[in-house]
Amino acid sequence: MKRASGDSVEDMARLVKQVSIESPTHKLKECIFSFENPMPDVPPAGARVKVRNAGVCYRLRSASSSSSIKSVEALHCGSPLHHSVRDTSLFPGYEVAGTVDAMGEEVGETDLQLGDRVIVYPYEGHPPGYAEFIAVPEVQYLIKIPDNMTLSTAAMLPSGALWAMTTVFNAHNHVEKVLSEKGETGTCKILLVGTGGLALWAMRIARFYWPDKRERININVACLRDEGISIAHEYLKVNVVQWNEDLYEEQLIERTKDACGGPVDIVIDFSATSRSIRRALKCLAPGGVMLMSSEHAEGLISRFGATAEKENHQLIPIEFGTLNQLRNLVHLVSTGEIEPPPHTIFSADQANEALAKIGRGIIPGRAILEFPEEEAEE
């Protein structure tokens, strides 16, 4: 491999595999599609990455759904993947780990070399990552990963783990304020909604940020599905309350308060909906804080802002983490200061199986897709 501004004739003629994981709808029953696309060009100031692992992941800045698939037949018209397949918010492939395959001629001084193992910061305009190769416009978006970290672990960091880290970091000041107001014997009650990968990361990151205050921080988890209870008990080791939608809303609110020992001071809801916000506000103590994704915040704050103000509640949107925060996260995980949650590896051809197991809640942690190494392809 050589640094090049363009591509060899062989590369230009090569077709590479790309997988799209869609949300099933009543019009589109299948949700996994495989394509062959031309090898992406090497950006002049960027690099091409050979993808090894990609997390079945989360994404804050999801693309518009205006480009959704209209029918299975539409998949065979030869349109570029990003024009014909919706970039869903849950499964677009924005957690990518692989190796540097080529770099453009305009790349300046950099510590990157061909063959280096890297992750890709999920910048605006990041291409779908469930592909054998992706083009990154600037090498600044590539972060080298240490030799002691596997690519499958690294693939969990760029989106979900970074988002969880940013959320916990933002919660830190609120936790300190609550503890200060309640005195030396007071506790800060936190309600974490959900038991997926984000919650698993958030718990581990919280233990890093507050190692000397664990006894004064009471973290409770609201499970949204039955399978989440065992995950919370086994991997989170925290108090659990089940949000069983068969119960009346008043019963769920009282059950949550009882499990938490009263109204909570902070709610962290990674997938906030109108229902979860309405419920959380009724579980919050006066002056309490709710943290949510900035992606959903504008409409939800507009809808519930007046209700929150009556009890002096704050609805706080959390922006996506920065490039430097991701570098710091890589360091903390590689040194063992933050323990990554468990993950299960599926080959790219097993995407259907991975999605089915995620849907049934039987994967403890994260699902990671894996593309074959070059030698295996040949």
TrEMBL record:
<dbReference type="Pfam" id="PF08240">
    <property type="entry name" value="ADH_N"/>
</dbReference>
<dbReference type="Pfam" id="PF13602">
    <property type="entry name" value="ADH_zinc_N_2"/>
</dbReference>
<dbReference type="InterPro" id="IPR050129">
    <property type="entry name" value="Zn_alcohol_dh"/>
</dbReference>
<dbReference type="InterPro" id="IPR013154">
    <property type="entry name" value="ADH-like_N"/>
</dbReference>
<protein>
    <recommendedName>
        <fullName>Enoyl reductase (ER) domain-containing protein</fullName>
    </recommendedName>
</protein>
<dbReference type="GO" id="GO:0046872">
    <property type="term" value="F:metal ion binding"/>
</dbReference>
<dbReference type="GO" id="GO:0016491">
    <property type="term" value="F:oxidoreductase activity"/>
</dbReference>
<keyword id="KW-0479">Metal-binding</keyword>
<dbReference type="InterPro" id="IPR011032">
    <property type="entry name" value="GroES-like_sf"/>
</dbReference>
<keyword id="KW-0560">Oxidoreductase</keyword>
<keyword id="KW-0862">Zinc</keyword>
<dbReference type="InterPro" id="IPR020843">
    <property type="entry name" value="ER"/>
</dbReference>
<dbReference type="InterPro" id="IPR036291">
    <property type="entry name" value="NAD(P)-bd_dom_sf"/>
</dbReference>
<feature type="domain" description="Enoyl reductase (ER)">
    <location>
        <begin position="30"/>
        <end position="369"/>
    </location>
</feature>
